Amino acid sequence: MSENQQPDQGRRQFLGQSAKAAASLALAPGVMLYGVTPANATTDSGASSANRWGLLIDTSKCANGCDACVTACQQENGWGDHGQTKQSSPAQIEQWIRKVDLRNNSTGASHSLPLMCQHCEHPPCVDVCPTGASMKRADGIVLVDKHICIGCRYCMMACPYKARSFVHEALYGQREHAPRGKGTVESCTLCVHKVDAGDGTTACADACSAAGHKAILFGDLKDPNSEISRTVATYNTTALRDDLDLNPGVRYRGI
Fold this sequence. Notes:
single chain, alpha+beta, Alpha-Beta Plaits, three-stranded mixed beta sheet, 7 helices
């Protein structure tokens, strides 16, 4: 083992020991955690390492001022102001996906693009989670198990994309396919319920296509015959914060 691998191994051992200790952590009187999911756990027996689900976002097609993808995600999964939370402050509204504007200070060129969980191959949120609530499935989808999330928010601090939100207030009327919980962390699930149902799409990609932009392409990055794989192989694409070597499953074109 090389010297630069040893600190990482030590960190993983420490996190593993911390996770075991958290198994008996008293969260509140009468509330205990009795089981801990390993940090590399998967949530669905149907998830296969033969797949790597991801998104390709073409910023040249992403329209300024359009938030169809954000609205669709809210309606599909029930976060934000679409049915599950009554926030006392706008600062507490959850964000699974948001539109951001990038500007090149040298040229003045600007791009509007959606930003969500990047579903990294090496997710730092999983590395720092003390209970194993943050996990990556075999097919590359990064999720949070609300049953064992203790709301420590380490994952939020570790995420370089600021892609996770904390649920501050009580929830109601939750979507059956998108369980949530007050005091837990959440983020884009890549519409995992659609993936597992074989729909082959996400709410954001559908909405973008319906709006006539077709800037978001969903698919299997490991399937050489998929449209997303063929496009990535043909055109230059960019990973946000590529310097971190996280190999995200979300790629961008045009930036």
